[in-house]
Specification:
The termini are far apart. The chain is built from eight helices and no strands. It is elongated and about 90 Å long. By secondary structure, it is an all-alpha fold. The longest helix is centred in the C-terminal third of the chain and has 73 residues. It has one domain. About 3% of the residues have low confidence.
Length: 209
Protein backbone atom coordinates (compact mmCIF):
# COMPACT_ATOMS: atom_id res chain seq x y z
CA UNK A 1 0.00 0.00 0.00
CA UNK A 2 1.13 3.53 -0.82
CA UNK A 3 0.59 5.03 2.63
CA UNK A 4 1.21 1.90 4.71
CA UNK A 5 3.39 2.14 7.79
CA UNK A 6 7.04 1.18 7.34
CA UNK A 7 6.93 -0.45 10.76
CA UNK A 8 3.65 -2.21 11.69
CA UNK A 9 2.09 -1.18 15.01
CA UNK A 10 2.56 -3.85 17.67
CA UNK A 11 -0.02 -4.96 20.20
CA UNK A 12 1.65 -2.93 22.97
CA UNK A 13 1.32 0.28 20.93
CA UNK A 14 -2.31 -0.54 20.07
CA UNK A 15 -3.06 -1.08 23.76
CA UNK A 16 -1.36 2.19 24.67
CA UNK A 17 -3.34 4.11 22.05
CA UNK A 18 -6.59 2.54 23.29
CA UNK A 19 -5.83 3.68 26.85
CA UNK A 20 -4.19 7.00 25.93
CA UNK A 21 -4.68 8.24 22.33
CA UNK A 22 -1.85 9.92 20.45
CA UNK A 23 -3.66 13.25 20.67
CA UNK A 24 -4.39 12.72 24.39
CA UNK A 25 -7.93 12.36 25.69
CA UNK A 26 -8.50 16.12 25.95
CA UNK A 27 -7.47 16.85 22.35
CA UNK A 28 -9.37 13.82 21.05
CA UNK A 29 -12.49 14.91 22.95
CA UNK A 30 -12.27 18.44 21.51
CA UNK A 31 -11.82 17.02 18.02
CA UNK A 32 -14.88 14.77 18.36
CA UNK A 33 -16.91 17.65 19.82
CA UNK A 34 -16.12 19.85 16.80
CA UNK A 35 -16.99 17.02 14.41
CA UNK A 36 -20.32 16.50 16.15
CA UNK A 37 -21.25 20.20 16.19
CA UNK A 38 -20.55 20.45 12.45
CA UNK A 39 -23.01 17.68 11.60
CA UNK A 40 -25.74 18.94 9.28
CA UNK A 41 -28.76 18.14 11.44
CA UNK A 42 -31.09 19.80 13.93
CA UNK A 43 -29.86 20.41 17.50
CA UNK A 44 -32.34 17.78 18.71
CA UNK A 45 -31.07 15.16 16.25
CA UNK A 46 -27.45 15.78 17.25
CA UNK A 47 -28.21 15.77 20.98
CA UNK A 48 -30.46 12.72 20.72
CA UNK A 49 -27.77 10.84 18.82
CA UNK A 50 -25.15 11.62 21.47
CA UNK A 51 -27.60 10.61 24.21
CA UNK A 52 -28.28 7.31 22.43
CA UNK A 53 -24.56 6.53 22.21
CA UNK A 54 -23.98 7.42 25.86
CA UNK A 55 -26.90 5.25 26.95
CA UNK A 56 -25.60 2.29 24.92
CA UNK A 57 -22.18 2.66 26.59
CA UNK A 58 -23.72 1.81 29.95
CA UNK A 59 -24.91 -1.60 28.78
CA UNK A 60 -22.54 -4.53 29.39
CA UNK A 61 -22.79 -5.81 25.81
CA UNK A 62 -19.37 -4.93 24.45
CA UNK A 63 -19.23 -5.26 20.69
CA UNK A 64 -22.89 -4.30 20.30
CA UNK A 65 -22.78 -0.70 21.51
CA UNK A 66 -22.91 0.70 17.98
CA UNK A 67 -25.98 -1.38 17.10
CA UNK A 68 -27.72 -0.45 20.34
CA UNK A 69 -26.89 3.22 19.83
CA UNK A 70 -28.25 3.14 16.28
CA UNK A 71 -31.46 1.45 17.44
CA UNK A 72 -32.05 3.96 20.24
CA UNK A 73 -31.18 6.87 17.94
CA UNK A 74 -33.71 5.63 15.40
CA UNK A 75 -36.44 5.48 18.07
CA UNK A 76 -35.80 9.01 19.34
CA UNK A 77 -35.03 10.60 15.93
CA UNK A 78 -31.33 10.99 16.65
CA UNK A 79 -28.50 11.39 14.18
CA UNK A 80 -26.65 8.14 13.43
CA UNK A 81 -23.20 9.74 13.21
CA UNK A 82 -23.74 11.48 16.54
CA UNK A 83 -24.91 8.18 18.04
CA UNK A 84 -21.69 6.46 16.92
CA UNK A 85 -19.68 9.31 18.43
CA UNK A 86 -21.61 9.08 21.69
CA UNK A 87 -20.47 5.49 22.20
CA UNK A 88 -16.95 6.83 22.80
CA UNK A 89 -18.22 7.76 26.25
CA UNK A 90 -17.47 4.13 27.02
CA UNK A 91 -13.68 3.80 26.98
CA UNK A 92 -10.92 2.16 29.05
CA UNK A 93 -11.01 5.05 31.52
CA UNK A 94 -14.78 5.15 32.10
CA UNK A 95 -15.62 1.44 31.82
CA UNK A 96 -14.45 0.49 35.36
CA UNK A 97 -16.73 3.19 36.84
CA UNK A 98 -19.60 2.28 34.52
CA UNK A 99 -19.40 -1.43 35.30
CA UNK A 100 -19.06 -0.91 39.05
CA UNK A 101 -21.98 1.53 39.19
CA UNK A 102 -24.32 -0.52 36.99
CA UNK A 103 -23.49 -3.75 38.81
CA UNK A 104 -24.05 -2.30 42.28
CA UNK A 105 -27.20 -0.46 41.19
CA UNK A 106 -28.58 -3.57 39.51
CA UNK A 107 -27.90 -5.62 42.62
CA UNK A 108 -29.72 -3.05 44.74
CA UNK A 109 -32.76 -3.04 42.44
CA UNK A 110 -32.91 -6.84 42.28
CA UNK A 111 -31.93 -7.77 45.84
CA UNK A 112 -31.98 -4.56 47.89
CA UNK A 113 -28.23 -4.80 48.52
CA UNK A 114 -25.22 -3.08 46.92
CA UNK A 115 -23.22 -6.32 47.15
CA UNK A 116 -20.71 -6.87 44.31
CA UNK A 117 -18.10 -9.12 45.89
CA UNK A 118 -20.13 -12.26 45.20
CA UNK A 119 -20.52 -11.28 41.56
CA UNK A 120 -16.80 -10.79 41.02
CA UNK A 121 -16.05 -14.08 42.81
CA UNK A 122 -18.41 -15.91 40.46
CA UNK A 123 -16.90 -14.13 37.48
CA UNK A 124 -13.41 -15.16 38.61
CA UNK A 125 -14.54 -18.78 38.76
CA UNK A 126 -16.10 -18.55 35.30
CA UNK A 127 -12.90 -17.03 33.90
CA UNK A 128 -11.15 -20.33 34.60
CA UNK A 129 -13.38 -22.10 32.08
CA UNK A 130 -11.58 -23.97 29.32
CA UNK A 131 -13.18 -22.38 26.27
CA UNK A 132 -11.16 -24.40 23.76
CA UNK A 133 -12.79 -27.69 24.72
CA UNK A 134 -16.35 -26.45 25.13
CA UNK A 135 -19.26 -27.87 23.12
CA UNK A 136 -22.40 -25.95 22.22
CA UNK A 137 -24.17 -27.17 25.33
CA UNK A 138 -21.24 -25.97 27.43
CA UNK A 139 -21.28 -22.56 25.71
CA UNK A 140 -25.00 -22.15 26.38
CA UNK A 141 -24.50 -23.14 30.00
CA UNK A 142 -21.66 -20.63 30.29
CA UNK A 143 -23.89 -17.85 28.97
CA UNK A 144 -26.57 -18.78 31.51
CA UNK A 145 -24.00 -18.80 34.32
CA UNK A 146 -22.70 -15.37 33.32
CA UNK A 147 -26.17 -13.88 32.81
CA UNK A 148 -27.50 -14.28 36.33
CA UNK A 149 -24.56 -13.04 38.42
CA UNK A 150 -23.12 -10.42 36.05
CA UNK A 151 -25.07 -9.47 32.92
CA UNK A 152 -28.56 -9.33 34.42
CA UNK A 153 -27.73 -6.92 37.29
CA UNK A 154 -25.52 -4.81 35.00
CA UNK A 155 -28.32 -4.60 32.42
CA UNK A 156 -30.90 -3.64 35.06
CA UNK A 157 -28.54 -1.08 36.59
CA UNK A 158 -27.62 0.36 33.20
CA UNK A 159 -31.18 1.49 32.50
CA UNK A 160 -31.69 4.14 35.24
CA UNK A 161 -28.07 5.34 35.27
CA UNK A 162 -27.88 5.41 31.48
CA UNK A 163 -31.11 7.39 31.21
CA UNK A 164 -30.00 10.01 33.75
CA UNK A 165 -26.53 10.50 32.24
CA UNK A 166 -27.80 10.48 28.66
CA UNK A 167 -30.41 13.14 29.53
CA UNK A 168 -27.63 15.32 30.93
CA UNK A 169 -25.60 14.84 27.75
CA UNK A 170 -28.71 15.58 25.68
CA UNK A 171 -29.27 18.92 27.38
CA UNK A 172 -25.63 20.01 27.21
CA UNK A 173 -25.16 18.87 23.60
CA UNK A 174 -28.40 20.49 22.43
CA UNK A 175 -27.40 23.82 23.98
CA UNK A 176 -23.94 23.74 22.38
CA UNK A 177 -25.33 22.60 19.00
CA UNK A 178 -27.91 25.39 19.00
CA UNK A 179 -25.33 28.01 19.98
CA UNK A 180 -22.89 26.72 17.33
CA UNK A 181 -25.49 26.77 14.57
CA UNK A 182 -26.67 30.29 15.49
CA UNK A 183 -23.06 31.53 15.51
CA UNK A 184 -22.31 29.86 12.18
CA UNK A 185 -25.50 31.31 10.64
CA UNK A 186 -24.53 34.80 11.82
CA UNK A 187 -21.05 34.42 10.34
CA UNK A 188 -22.48 33.23 7.01
CA UNK A 189 -24.96 36.13 6.96
CA UNK A 190 -22.18 38.60 7.75
CA UNK A 191 -20.00 37.11 5.00
CA UNK A 192 -22.88 37.25 2.51
CA UNK A 193 -23.57 40.89 3.41
CA UNK A 194 -19.88 41.74 3.04
CA UNK A 195 -19.74 40.08 -0.37
CA UNK A 196 -22.93 41.93 -1.42
CA UNK A 197 -21.46 45.26 -0.32
CA UNK A 198 -18.20 44.49 -2.13
CA UNK A 199 -20.10 43.60 -5.31
CA UNK A 200 -22.11 46.82 -5.03
CA UNK A 201 -18.94 48.85 -4.56
CA UNK A 202 -17.29 47.23 -7.59
CA UNK A 203 -20.43 47.87 -9.64
CA UNK A 204 -20.51 51.54 -8.59
CA UNK A 205 -16.81 51.91 -9.39
CA UNK A 206 -17.23 50.39 -12.83
CA UNK A 207 -20.14 52.76 -13.59
CA UNK A 208 -17.99 55.73 -12.60
CA UNK A 209 -15.28 54.60 -14.98
Amino acid sequence: MLFARKKPVGWREKLRIAIWPRRSWSRSTKYLAKRVLRITASPHAIAAGIAAGVFASFTPYLGFHFLLAFAVAYLIAGNIIAAATGTFFGNPITFPFIWASTLSTGNFILTGKFQTGTNFHQLKELARTDFWHMGWDDVWQFVINVWEPILMPMTVGAIPIGIVVSLIFYGVTRWFALAFQVSRRQKLDARALQEKESAAARSALSEMN
